[in-house]
Amino acid sequence: MKRLVRENALALCFLLLFLATLAGQSVAGAAAFNEEQAANGGSPVTWAGYVTSSSFAVDVAENWQSEYLQFFLYILITVWLIQRGSPESKKEGEEGLESDAEQKVGPYAAPGSPAWAAAPSWRRTVFSHSLGIAMGLLFLLSWLAQSVAGLAAYNNEQLAQLEDPVGWGGYVTSPDFWNRTLQNWQSEFLAVASMVLLAIFLRERGSPQSKKVGDPHAETASSG
């Protein structure tokens, strides 16, 4: 058990952080929701009522979709674009999909390579892009969840103000939906750009996301 935890410590750490912050968000969100209800003359809801509401669902889903979009785009863009001096980038001249020999696929697969890396035809193609496909699908699913939960929350507000509800198509083309969406996207893109650029000149000793402390600033694709 100890070995299992040690070998999966990074994933377990972030899963625990995810659960802790999700729980904190649910408590803080319920309190904020009830403050708003009281200010508008509405009735408070229980914690269970809040975490099963569309208001909580849309707040969670809109963050998930922006995170998955960030990773999806970063995975694809770093195949083709480089940043001189960044450990987050390939070296100059290595842009693109690389050769089968470099990627250890088809006849170049090693004895320990995944079975689909050596498989012919579509299976190898799918496996070669499986990470990007998975992140893309997770983004689309979380975006869809945000749109559905956001629609329910938006229509609840419409009805409370004695206004007509809107359909899904009307909501996903509305300012409310895109305000929620774009405010998350812009923060994710800024964070990625900051990481790429700051990692050129700054270091974190021992981190694979940083260059070695003594590496030149112009060193690209190295890690500590």
Automatic annotation (TrEMBL):
<dbReference type="Pfam" id="PF20554">
    <property type="entry name" value="DUF6766"/>
</dbReference>
<keyword id="KW-0472">Membrane</keyword>
<feature type="transmembrane region" description="Helical">
    <location>
        <begin position="64"/>
        <end position="82"/>
    </location>
</feature>
<keyword id="KW-0732">Signal</keyword>
<feature type="transmembrane region" description="Helical">
    <location>
        <begin position="131"/>
        <end position="154"/>
    </location>
</feature>
<protein>
    <submittedName>
        <fullName>Uncharacterized protein</fullName>
    </submittedName>
</protein>
<keyword id="KW-0812">Transmembrane</keyword>
<keyword id="KW-1133">Transmembrane helix</keyword>
<feature type="transmembrane region" description="Helical">
    <location>
        <begin position="185"/>
        <end position="202"/>
    </location>
</feature>
<dbReference type="InterPro" id="IPR046657">
    <property type="entry name" value="DUF6766"/>
</dbReference>
<feature type="signal peptide">
    <location>
        <begin position="1"/>
        <end position="23"/>
    </location>
</feature>
